[in-house]
């Protein structure tokens, strides 16, 4: 680990590693946000994709991304570097997605109890390409939320199994097993669809 900067100096944030940016952020925040902004720029697109695939819609994904970015901003000064910044970021993202997912589930139950049709309400928010979603999104509906998150962290965030296990507070072998079962389920659903 390199020595943290002792004063705010001129530097090109695009030339620094995540670790070096974190060190600059420790010194600079909250007066200067240059290092923080570069970290968010690097991960913003993937962060949004992870949230969108986990939550199933862009509106909730955008809300969660904003919440994650605020948590990173306020938590970065306390980040000790015991894991990679990327792992820490996706750990926060995972927890925020879980929270949002639970909120939406409670809202759906309430709508059901009030005899409102959540599908009718959601139909107003459809985008023109909703039905055109391809690739991973189309198949993620076939697996449970935990397995979906493992697949998203592996394929979208491109994390290693150990990083995924750390984020999800699971053992490495359990993570790999769930990953394999989720892939098997997707293959099974794909072959069923291909036959019809």
TrEMBL record:
SUPFAM superfamilies, A to Z:
Sigma2 domain of RNA polymerase sigma factors, Sigma3 and sigma4 domains of RNA polymerase sigma factors
Q: What organism is recorded for this protein?
A: Stutzerimonas stutzeri
Q: What is this protein called?
A: RNA polymerase subunit sigma
**Pfam families per the record?**
Sigma70_r2 (PF04542), Sigma70_r4 (PF04545)
The UniProt GO MF terms for this protein read: DNA binding; sigma factor activity
Q: Which UniProt keywords apply?
A: DNA-binding, Sigma factor, Transcription, Transcription regulation
For the keyword Acetylation, the answer is no
PANTHER family documented for this protein: ECF RNA POLYMERASE SIGMA-E FACTOR, RNA POLYMERASE ECF-TYPE SIGMA FACTO
User: Mind listing the GO biological process terms from this record?
Assistant: DNA-templated transcription initiation
Q: Which residues form the RNA polymerase sigma-70 region domain?
A: 39-106, 139-188
Q: Show which residues constitute the signal peptide.
A: none
- Family membership, please give it: Belongs to the sigma-70 factor family. ECF subfamily.
Query: InterPro entries of this UniProt entry?
Result: RNA_pol_sigma-70-like, RNA_pol_sigma-70_dom, RNA_pol_sigma70_r2, RNA_pol_sigma70_r4, RNA_pol_sigma_r2, RNA_pol_sigma_r3/r4-like, WH-like_DNA-bd_sf
């Amino acid at each position: 680990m390199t020595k943290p900067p002792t004063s705010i100096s001129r530097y090109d944030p695009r030339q620094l590693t995540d670790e070096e940016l974190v060190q600059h952020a420790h010194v600079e925040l909250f007066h200067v946000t240059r290092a923080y902004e570069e970290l968010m720029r690097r991960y913003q697109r993937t962060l949004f994709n992870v949230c969108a695939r986990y939550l199933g819609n862009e509106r909730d994904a955008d809300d969660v991304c904003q919440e994650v970015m605020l948590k990173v901003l306020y938590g970065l000064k306390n980040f000790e570097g015991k894991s990679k910044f990327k792992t820490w970021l996706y750990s926060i993202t995972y927890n925020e997605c879980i929270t949002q997912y639970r909120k939406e589930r409670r809202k759906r139950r309430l709508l059901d109890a009030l005899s409102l049709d959540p599908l009718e309400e959601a139909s107003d928010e459809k985008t023109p390409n909703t039905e055109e979603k391809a690739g991973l999104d189309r198949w993620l509906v076939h697996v449970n939320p935990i397995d979906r998150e493992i697949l998203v962290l592996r394929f979208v965030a491109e994390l290693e199994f150990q990083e995924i296990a750390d984020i999800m507070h699971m053992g490495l072998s359990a993570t790999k097993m769930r990953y394999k079962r989720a892939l098997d389920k997707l293959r099974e659903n794909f072959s069923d669809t291909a036959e019809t």
